[in-house]
UniProtKB/TrEMBL annotation:
This is DUF1232 domain-containing protein. Residues 51-85 form the DUF1232 domain. It is found in: Endomembrane system. The keyword Transmembrane applies. InterPro entries: DUF1232 (IPR010652), UCP031804 (IPR016983). GO terms for cellular component: endomembrane system. It comes from Chenggangzhangella methanolivorans. Its main location: membrane. Keywords: Membrane, Transmembrane, Transmembrane helix. It is a multi-pass membrane protein. The lineage of its organism: Bacteria, Pseudomonadati, Pseudomonadota, Alphaproteobacteria, Hyphomicrobiales. The keyword Transferase does not apply.
């Protein structure tokens, strides 16, 4: 059961992360961390428990219906940022230079930096 949920979360993040990020990247201060978390979560070398924590936080980021609606100016992504920041703080040791460099490159290529 848990494996099915993990796979479902991973598929959803792969499908919905970039469209969500493109829509909001310029209005959120944590875009690089979000993209680095994305790459860390999808990295098969990242431990499963770390991937699960990051995938959960990323799903919360992409789901439009959460504690504070994302369309509210300045407040909409505050809860998303908090959840993502907590997940990143918990697993920071596993987010390496490879993930951060991939994030910087992706943001530059998408012209979201």
């Amino acid at each position: 059961m848990a494996s099915d949920s993990f796979s479902s979360d991973e598929s959803r993040v792969k499908r919905e992360f970039w469209p969500t990020l493109r829509r909001v990247a310029r209005s959120i201060p944590f875009a690089e961390d979000a993209v680095a978390a994305y790459y860390c979560a999808l990295d098969r070398e990242t431990p499963t428990h770390v991937r699960a924590a990051l995938l959960g936080a990323l799903v919360y980021f992409i789901v439009p219906f959460d504690a504070v609606p994302d369309f509210l100016p300045l407040l909409g992504f505050a809860d998303d940022a908090s959840v993502l920041a907590a997940a990143i703080a918990a697993v920071r040791i596993h987010m390496n230079d490879k993930h951060r460099e991939a994030a910087r490159r992706a943001l530059a290529e998408e012209d979201l930096a």
